[in-house]
Specification:
The complex is a heterodimer. Chain A is 35% helix and 30% strand. Chain A contains 11 helices and 13 strands. In chain A, helix 4 runs antiparallel to helix 5. The longest helix of chain A has 17 residues. Chain A is globular. Chain A starts with a strand and ends in a 6-residue tail after the last helix. The relative contact order of chain A is 0.14. By secondary structure, chain B is mainly alpha-helical. Chain B is built from 5 helices and 2 strands. In chain B, strands 1-2 form a two-stranded antiparallel ribbon. In chain B, helix 1 packs across helix 3 and helix 2 crosses helix 3. The chains are: A alpha/beta, B mainly alpha. Chains A and B meet through helix 6, helix 8 and helix 10 of A and helix 1, helix 2, helix 3 and helix 4 of B.
């Protein structure tokens, strides 16, 4: 499903959560939506899933607005970091309700997942630990098989082995049936290899949208004598630079081979680091 | 097979290079099947489309060929093709960094040549 975001703006009092954001997600891919706290990620996902309205601008999914749109809401599953389910419901009833809501619901997968995560069907949501509740969210998200599945930091309290299992099953599912997965998390290192495309938000604006492989190929950290590095940087887009003892390291858009030709030491920049440098609040700005 | 991938380099390139290395050192022989996109994706927790890109480039280079419904296999000429290709990038990948470091340490060319030869002798012993 094609997702078009057009001049999307959402204000909470005088604060812009999203400020005139536009982009298009054309293909069925796994997208990483990254940014610091308060960058507007959650607001975007809430509007996408039709839960809140924008002040101006719009999101169109296959040309339609998702707000109050039955056909679209059953195509989108948003799992948030908590409070996804009514506290008094039993696990089995949560699954039942969602199975009615999502036409592609996979009951077999849902049952396999609650077993995997040791969730008892008769337990009430309010008796679950944070990690268990997250596991239930993940179960619903994966089993929904919604053409657009959105995970907003879905694993608060979930331990590392359970997260690993989640990644494994998510990839398995994705291989079997491709669907658009939008994944927002602060644990970027753990998941960045799964992203096909990355979007980075900063203070309500989109600062980057790019395929992850292109990022890995085109963002480098070069180090060397200050004048050599400065010389290399001429005409290039510099993300960040730092100096120490006559040496400089610069994070820049460029190719490894080119930097090597200049005799500079060069490394790639992991997506996690790129996110940090791109979203640093500029001093005095 | 490496245990994990380097996050700083394009993933499809690493998948590609791993397969190339296995073919060059004959751990995978002509006619044998290589791991599928999904096997790579599951092993490294990477996006299957990324793994596919590495494998497809090797198909385009005639190192692998596809048997529909069965998988990807190593071609007869794979090893030869890859050795030729690697030779072409040998200077850039290995000689250039060597020369740069030598220059930094003020190692003369004659000195460098001696070291290259010395290495050969220890290998032979």
């Amino acid at each position: 499903m094609k997702i078009e975001v057009k001049n999307l703006t959402k204000k909470y009092k005088d604060n812009y959560a999203l400020n005139n954001v536009s982009f298009t997600l054309n293909e069925t891919k796994i997208y990483g939506l990254l940014g610091r706290n308060g960058a507007g990620k959650t607001t975007f996902m809430d509007i996408l899933s039709g839960q809140i309205l924008a002040n101006s601008g719009e999101i169109l999914i296959d040309g339609e607005n998702p707000f109050d749109n039955q056909r679209l809401t059953e195509s989108i599953c948003l799992i948030k970091e908590g409070h996804n389910f009514k506290k008094d419901l039993k696990v089995k009833n949560v699954l039942k309700i969602y199975s009615f809501f999502y036409p592609n619901w996979d009951q077999e997968l849902a049952e396999a997942l609650i077993k995997e995560y040791n969730l008892h069907p008769e337990s009430k949501v309010k008796t679950l630990s944070k990690g268990m509740e997250s596991a239930l969210g993940i179960t619903v998200g994966l089993a929904s098989k919604a053409p657009i599945t959105v995970f907003d930091e879905p694993y608060i309290g979930l331990d590392a082995p359970s997260r690993k299992k989640f990644y494994e099953i998510m990839l398995e599912e994705y291989q079997e049936t491709r669907r658009t997965i939008i994944f927002s998390t602060h644990l970027i290192d753990e998941v960045s290899l799964m992203f096909e495309e990355v979007l980075i938000l900063r203070e309500g604006s989109l600062v980057l949208q790019e395929e992850s492989e292109i990022l890995r190929d085109n963002t480098i950290a070069v180090s060397g004598k200050i004048e050599d590095v400065e010389d290399f940087l001429i005409g290039k887009e510099v993300i960040q630079k730092k100096q120490l003892a006559g040496m400089m390291t610069a994070y820049v858009y460029g190719k490894v081979e080119e930097a090597k030709m200049h005799g500079l030491a060069v490394e790639g920049v992991p997506i996690q680091e790129l996110m940090i440098y791109l979203t640093e609040r500029k001093k005095g700005a | 097979m490496k245990n994990s991938l380097d996050e700083n380099k394009p993933i499809f390139l690493q998948i590609k290079e791993q397969l190339e290395d296995s073919i060059i050192d004959e751990s995978i022989k002509p006619g044998e099947r290589v791991p599928s996109t999904n096997e790579f994706a599951a092993y490294y927790k990477i996006n299957p489309a990324t793994a596919a890109k590495g494998i497809n480039e090797l198909v385009a280079e005639e190192v692998l060929f596809k048997r529909r419904g069965v998988g990807m296999f190593v071609t007869e000429d794979a090893q030869e093709i890859l050795i030729e290709k690697r030779k072409k990038t040998f200077y850039e990948s290995y000689m250039l960094p060597l020369k740069n470091e030598a220059k930094k340490l003020r190692i003369q060319e004659s000195e460098l040549m001696e070291m290259v030869k010395k290495g050969d002798m220890t290998n032979e012993n």
